[in-house]
Amino acid sequence: MPVGNDAVLLCDLDESAWALYGKVACNRFARRVVEQVRSEFGKGVLALASRYLPPPTSNLTVEDLALELRTYNCLCELRQRRRLEASEDWRKIMIGDLLDLWSFGAKSLVDFLTSYEAYTEARLKKIEKSSDLQDARTEEIELLRAWCSNPTDPIPWNVVSLHLPTPPPGTRLSDLVLKTRTFNCLHKSAFEKDLSRLADTTVQDLVAIRGFGVNCLVDLVAALDNCKPALLKATSLESNEEIQARGLELLSRWCSEPTSPIPSHVAACRLPSPPKGMRLEDLALNIRTYNRLETAGFSAEPQGLGSCTLRDIVAIQGVGEKGAAELVRGLLQTAESTKRAIQGDLCDLSAVLPMCDTPESLPLGDGFRKAMTFGRSAGADRNCSIGMRYFGLDGNGGCTLQEVANEFGITRARTQQIIAVLVARLRKSPILARLDKAVLFVTTRAPDSADNIEKALAAEGLVAGKFCLNGLLQSARLFGRPVTFSIEDSTGGRVVVATSSVKLARRAVQVARNSLRQWGVATISDIAAQLAEKSGQGVNEGILAKLFSNQRSFSWLDQSTGWFWFRTLTKNRLARLIKKIVSVAGRIGISELRAGLGRPHRMKGFAPPRRVLYELCKQLPGVAVEDSAIVGVDLPDWKNLVRPLERTMVEILKEHGSVMQRAKFEEACKARGVKHSTFYVYLDYSPVIERLAHGVYGVRGAYVAPGVVESLIPKHQRSATVRIDQGWTSGGEVFISYRLSKSILASGVIGIPAALKRFIQGEFQIKAPDGQITGRLVIKDTSGWGLGPHFRRRGGDEGDILLLVLNLAKRQATVSIGDENMFEALSKDTSEMGLADEKTGTGPD
Fold this sequence. Notes:
Layout: E1 2-3, E2 6-7, H1 16-21, H2 23-49, H3 69-81, H4 87-91, H5 95-99, H6 106-149, H7 157-160, H8 180-188, H9 203-207, H10 214-226, H11 240-256, H12 264-267, H13 287-295, H14 310-315, H15 320-343, H16 358-361, H17 364-373, H18 380-391, H19 401-408, H20 412-426, H21 431-444, E3 448-449, H22 450-460, H23 469-478, E4 485-488, E5 495-498, H24 502-519, E6 522-523, H25 524-535, H26 541-549, E7 554-558, E8 563-566, H27 573-585, E9 587-589, H28 590-597, H29 610-619, E10 623-626, E11 629-632, H30 644-655, E12 659-661, H31 662-671, H32 676-685, E13 689-693, E14 696-699, H33 708-712, E15 725-728, E16 734-739, H34 742-747, E17 749-751, E18 762-767, E19 773-780, E20 783-785, H35 788-794, E21 801-807, E22 812-818, H36 820-840
Parallel strand pairs: 18-22
Antiparallel strand pairs: 1-2, 3-5, 4-5, 6-8, 7-8, 9-11, 10-11, 12-14, 13-14, 15-16, 16-21, 17-20, 18-19, 19-20, 21-22
């Protein structure tokens, strides 16, 4: 650049050239110089590359040169290859060595040579002018360092007046590796804004700061000795993209081998910008780092990491260099994966966004495993296994925190921390849609056995292989998803029911068990009716059948009409009576057995239909079916199954050929100590004693020779006829008795005697002998209907006696089904009432 007759050397130009020649002229000149050097590359590159650098005046470091960012980074790379400490080291560097560096071009060469020459000239002038001052200052620093190597308290007088070493230009307080106390003292004294004031500060001034003692002074001197010049800011000649790329490269190198303290030029680099939609949970962070960053607000706004420097992250309490390196590695890995996916280097987009299609294609366990391990280090595999085990998504149904801790050899607290991070990471993940779909699938198939639904889940592709529904239930609750089903296993088998029907299902099972304990067998219709009475809402019989059929001990007796029983139910009265009758008889027909089952007063005349009883005997342990007869199989001795007085009466009958007249039978029992009242109780209610004819009794099921019964019938006995009887009871109630026919059983319609129709018109509530309401009887003129529901709930066979007792005041109709004994008792009651009427001359009006 000529000025008059003189020429100006490029190395002589400094910041004053901008004011002297103007910004436009300086920029044009700089471009001309760079273009000239670039053109020389094509002409004589070999001659230029073989030239050595001129020797510096002293031990030169890269930080001593005022270089652009790119030039500085390239020379740092050269310094890693060769040791550039003494002057002789620089003499061995040729221009070709510089040009071989990656991204070191003409502009970097001009920048380096200009700074190199300027430094050499300035060094020579500075040495000449301030050699004496420098020697004195060096003496002070050496004396201070000598004292720091062996500090004493109090500080000697010759050390108190010493000045501290001058920090490198651009160095900030945060660039120094200081202890907490030292940093806080200097921060309160405003050294953070202007650290260059330390050069004019004496030891006495520092010690005067509150809390700043001998240890802090030694810490500060050591930090100043180890400090390197800060990274010079890039000029406008280098684009923002290049600066960001260089910063990422520096961060990547530092993360591979983290150092403490962090170099100032690395600490000033900005973190990679997180991809859009990335969450803090997607990074492979340990619990401590994640919690600290979440406290700092980066969980809600992870995009804010892109505006932070490495120094800002390290400054967060509890993160430190290790946590910062972990964060930078995660960001770089995520950024690299996203970049490669956009360029098409990945064969499948799901490698970057693994959950974009997983909810619609992967089984539940595989989907959760992929969501927990994507974009994370290899150490995350163990945490994933812990999560899968606790959530129950591994197919084993889940377990407690302590069980997981014992299995993986860690503490319960550590297990809880890992689970908390995994739950937070997956709480907004698309895989939860897959979880909701599985829960809905299970709910729509309830009620059903858990085993059947687990197989259906696998067949639908929602899970892979064996899977326990308890794990699905636990996962839904942990992630706050709506739980619409429950698993009931109180009855020995796992049954899935809808959440809204849990109470009703439990009540249904309890009602069924209570009914079976009393009657031995039951119908779905009867249980549904009882539930409707207790809950006040209708119950679907199909749902009840599905619920009961999944009980482990459930068994159908007649599925077409809904008869069932529980095989393992204790205190089954009907089963006990069957074994009692069979053990006494040895072999008995199904009709005789059924007649005996309805005799005990607790059975209230109830006996299941023949087809149901026949199937029950097939399934009941201890009895078997042979040629339409019921026989005992390995039953205890009958004497151990009947009561003592009842045993005495059976023994008397068997001693007399299993059949006797009632009068002689009563005399023999009285002789054996059986009271009169007890005799008639067993005569009426014992299942093993039957009435063979009027005044003739025998052992039920025992063989009696032809003609024996007829010979024992008292001579005053009237011939038996099939008839319908009616009248008034001693309590003023109307009774009507019928012998059941096929038409009555099928239609539930009966005929009403004309003599009584004017008293009993209207509706009556049908009540069973046990007090349960079983239907509604309507009587109009000489017809009555509405007995069908009672027959479906309590059964009945052709030839049974139906006794209908109408309470006109309460409008209730008590319906009893039994044999002729029931009718005989009623006849006795009415005859007594007739005698009373004859004496008083009154009767029912």
